[in-house]
Design brief:
Blueprint lengths: L21 E4 L5 E5 L14 H17 L40 H4 L3 H14 L6 H4 L10 E3 L7 E4 L4 H5 L6 E5 L2 E2 L3 H10 L4 E9 L2 E9 L33 E3 L2 H7 L8 E3 L5 E2 L6 E2 L4 E5 L8 H11 L5 E8 L2 E8 L2
Antiparallel strand pairs: 1-2, 3-4, 5-6, 5-7, 7-8, 9-10, 11-12, 13-14, 14-15
Length: 346
């Protein structure tokens, strides 16, 4: 399928920012697994490889040989019903038809791209002034959300486990092969992303790993907000509504960063309190109208909340607690004084 027009969105749920995604299906439409992952620039890990794809296909054939005795374990491979049946039913995509106009010179204009679905899904909630679900704001978490770096050439082989991470606390070790997660057989990194994408927030999920010749059962404790990146929001086409320095959409118009512990000590701000600044130094518009953050401004409260927040926490607050047109109240330290500002969300 080289275009998104007419896609069954209840059947085909995948990371819409991919340029390549694969589903392994039984003829009765039972999903064995998925393949396709964005590269991870911070970890230096590629997204896909021929060896990894072959390994996933071989795993799918093993599941197929065991079918239908393993049918129950595949039930959650298909997600909840989509808000709309096909992309053309989203508000932002009504201009498209369920097919491409191959016979005209308007092929490019009639071809819907996959990334448009992700953006339209986000806007679906904003247009209705509904809170944007966590997995729409931060879709398809990478295994790095668990503190894991996996081998792209294998099914789900753990290369590294970060200290003080969800995976470390659960007991995962380098060399482990993750074979089940939340009761689902795992064929790829994308399968792990699928489990994290559809998991409740917070929740506990069971994991089964092969550690050498041993089968080891573990439990991962996913805290509230586990999907949210802690060190800045990575670029995704669908995440343009979060990367507000790149494109309008929310009405905050800046990239934010949390002050480091050293900067906090210098400013006299405790580690557990809010202290965010404009990432490029300030002086850009924060919201619609004349409001700007000036160089040196530090936001120390949002709507009266002063708990420590990351950039993703701030955007989640704005998108889940406010509708378009609402006013967000900011408390800013400027020149040693606290001042109150207001920003209107688009």
């Amino acid at each position: 399928m080289v275009y998104a027009n007419g896609t069954d969105l209840t059947m085909f749920q995948f990371d819409n920012d991919l340029t390549f995604a694969a589903f392994f299906l039984n003829a009765d439409r039972k999903i064995y697994g998925r393949y396709g992952t964005l590269p991870s620039p911070r970890s230096g890990v590629a997204g896909v490889s021929q060896r990894g794809f072959i390994a996933a296909m071989q795993g799918a054939l093993e599941l197929h040989r065991a079918y239908p005795s393993n049918e129950a374990s595949l039930a959650d491979k298909r997600g909840p019903k989509s808000p709309v049946a096909v992309p053309e039913d989203f508000d932002d995509l009504v201009e498209y038809q369920n097919r491409i106009e191959w016979s005209t010179r308007a092929v490019s204009r009639s071809c819907m791209h996959c990334h448009q679905i992700g953006s339209a899904r986000f806007q679906h909630y904003r247009y209705r002034k509904q809170p944007v679900p966590e997995n729409v704001l931060f879709p398809w978490p990478m295994p790095t959300a668990l503190g894991l770096v996996l081998d792209v050439d294998r099914v789900a082989h753990v290369q590294r486990v970060e200290e003080d991470s969800i995976g470390k606390r659960a007991g995962l070790e380098p060399g482990d092969d993750i074979v089940e997660l939340a009761g689902q057989p795992i064929l790829s990194i994308a399968d792990i992303q699928w489990v994290l994408h559809t998991a409740n927030d917070p929740c506990r999920i069971a994991a089964v790993v092969h550690r050498g010749e041993q089968r080891v059962e573990l439990e991962l404790d996913l805290p509230r907000g586990f999907r949210r990146p802690r060190d800045g929001i990575p670029f995704r086409w669908t995440d343009r509504h979060l990367s507000l320095g790149r494109v309008s959409g929310l009405g905050i118009g800046v990239r934010l960063r949390d002050l480091t512990d050293d900067e906090r000590r210098e400013a006299g701000i405790p580690k557990d309190r809010l202290a965010i600044v404009e990432a490029s130094g300030g002086g850009r518009r924060f919201g619609r109208g004349s409001l700007t953050l000036e160089p040196g401004d530090t936001v120390v409260a949002i709507d009266g909340f002063d708990d420590r927040m990351s950039e993703s926490d701030v955007y989640a607050h704005c998108l889940q607690k406010h509708a378009p047109g609402d006013v967000v109240k900011l408390t800013v330290m400027r020149g040693g004084k606290r001042i109150e500002l207001r920003a209107t969300l688009r």
